[in-house]
Amino acid sequence: LDNFSNERGDGFFRKVNREGKVVDPVHQVYPQAFAVYALSTFGRVFAEPLAVERALACFKAFDKRAYEPQFGGYDLTNEPPWQTPGASKETNTHIHVMEALTALGEVSRDEHLHRRLREFTELTITRHRQPLNYVHLEFYMDYTPFGEPRVSYGHDMETSWLVLEAMRVLRDENVVEPLPESYALSALDIGKASANWGFDEEKGGYFNQGIPGERVLDREKLWWVQFEALPALVQLHRAGVLPDALNRLERTLDWIENGQLDKEFGGFYWGVMPDGTLGQIGRAHV
């Protein structure tokens, strides 16, 4: 709040230097969503209404700026830094906005917030999800898929459990009409598909990316993919839709502890190949 907040108190700069000077003033939706998530969670855990007020103000500011009313969701055409030129919407930002609004929805009964949470959850199932039960990465404005079919196993397992959490909050808070339970089944289908497609049967853990339903293209194992797989596998086990979910969970934990963990200095390597060598990013840690 001291170093990243703008003067209006409704947004956050993307980057400051060690002295707190703003070096990247962009108000990108993706990091704004994480600010909302953090403030909402802080407000809930510590019963701090100011944190919730700041989270709600931040959401309403970027929602007003980025919302695209014709087809729904956010127009991210000019959003840096990773969207492919020519794409207008991308899944990763949308699912993290959904995640942030889920957290905010637990501490605020603002109707606009809950309507947007419901919309983003519905868009995830009805527009981002494709017939093969994967979530396409990028889209044109009308949600026509942009680029070749690719599945990010980590993002899809993440999407699966985030949708279930969003539906839980919508149902429990009951500010707007809950979504049909068939959406939960669709979310589980997304998680199950990637839990099967992306798993390393030999070494445990999850690969990065592939062609939906066909083959793995990128066998590097990224730290965040492994951690997103854990709650997804728990949800798949609880729902009874993946019989060996607990086995995959244990083998993914084994991979994290024996393959991803830096036992000398602590932390986790960003990416590791199945043979134990470091991935292309090298000795990056988190």
Would you mind describing this structure in some detail?
The protein has 286 residues and is mainly α. The protein is built from eight helices and nine strands. The chain has helices at 29-46, 49-66, 91-105, 111-128, 153-173, 182-197, 223-239, 245-260, and strands spanning 15-16, 22-24, 89-90, 138-139, 151-152, 209-211, 215-218, 221-222, 271-272. The strands form four sheets. A three-stranded antiparallel β-sheet has the order 5-6-7. A hairpin with a 3-residue loop joins strand 6 and strand 7. Helix 5 (153-173) runs antiparallel to helix 6. It is globular and about 55 Å long.
Outline:
This protein is mainly α and 286 residues long. It has helices spanning 29-46, 49-66, 91-105, 111-128, 153-173, 182-197, 223-239, 245-260; strands spanning 15-16, 22-24, 89-90, 138-139, 151-152, 209-211, 215-218, 221-222, 271-272. The longest helix has 21 residues, at 153-173.
- Which stretches are poorly predicted, pLDDT < 50 over at least 5 residues? none
Main sheet, how many strands, which sense, barrel?
Answer: 3 strands, antiparallel
The fraction of residues in strands falls at 5-15%
Overall residue-averaged pLDDT value = 96
Shape: globular
- Computed over alpha carbons, the radius of gyration is 19 Å
Classify the helix fraction into a percent range. Answer: 40-55%
**Class by alpha and beta content:** mainly alpha
Number of helical elements: 8
Secondary-structure element order, as H and E? EEHHEHHEEHHEEEHHE
Distance between the termini: 23 Å
Strand line-up across the major sheet: 5-6-7
Number of distinct beta strands: 9
